[in-house]
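For this section, I looked closely at a protein sequence along with its fold in token form, which I now present.
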Amino acid sequence: MIKSSWNGSSSTALASRSPTATLVSPLPVPPPASELPFHRNLNVHLICPDCREDPPHLVENFSDGDMVCESCGLVLGARIVDTRSEWRTFANDDQGSDDPSRVGEPVNPLLDGGQLGTTISFLSNNSSASRELNRAQNKSSQDKRDQHLHAAYAKISSMCDRYHLPRVVQDTAKDIYKKVEDHRALKGKSTESIEAAAIFIACRQANVARSFKEIGLLTSVPKKELGRVFKIIDAILQEGGQMGGAVSAVTAAESDYQSVGTSAEDLMNRFCSHLGLSSQVSSGAQLIARRVTKEGILAGRSPISIAAATIYMAAGLFGEAQSASKIAERAGVSDGTIKTSYKFLWEARDKLIDPQWLESGRASLAGLPKAQ
């Protein structure tokens, strides 16, 4: 291939020499930017054609929908669409029942449907016709399932507030309850047992573990019934694969559901706080519980029994001895269970007690209760 210039004579001569010669024209050179006429290109850059300030001082007049140059007052655009968010809600009492919100409340993912229904309220004259119209509209439009969900959510919130549980536990428990209701696998089970199991699982997910007995006392659901419902819900959530997270900042993004168990370390701080023990005893009991689990000394026993026996040992070791009956009252187990578990801890005390505690003088073996 022979490239030729754009001169006619030389191009003809070169083309005649070779039958396969091809004329290739160069790309056109654009004129300089200074010679181009002014045109408005909002996708690139918008400046005022009069004052030509760069950067421009442009303001949007939302009341008129105009784009105006602040320096010279030239109107650069008209009928501009206001793209600001309209998700505004104000109390009706502030502006004489004049609510400027034009979009309503956001969709609640915990309820069914799109929540786009219309509600007819009483008229100001409180006439019989308005009351009848309101009553007829309520009978025809209100969803009984949403009413049931509202009642369940209110009860979950009440129980969580009574037990001083964080807001994330409430939101997670409501989300779990909604998923279980959608699955329809717990027909015949009482609503109270489902709510209690949802709160129990939510506590585990939020790392504020509570025992079956504590949740049972809170909700008045028997421990055995709570355990049965918990196993069913846990299987449903594992089968579903994902827990929702559309209700709070902590649960806003969906995350894989994983069944979380309760360990003795999770219960230690709360039990020690209820007993008025120092942070030194709490941290020491956690270390002992970690070693108990690692060595398998109390394998097969419940986390509550392990936590109670460990606190019984750590409190005496650090000079803040507590009776077995007092610890049993706070932990929710019998003092006989604590003493039986403590026998195994006493026999393995050399593996559980950190030698640095004894060397520093913070702990003493003389304060340990005798195994009975």
In short: Residues 144-162 form the longest helix (19 residues). Confidence is low (pLDDT under 50) at residues 1-23, 241-255. Residues 28 and 153 are 71 Å apart (CA to CA).
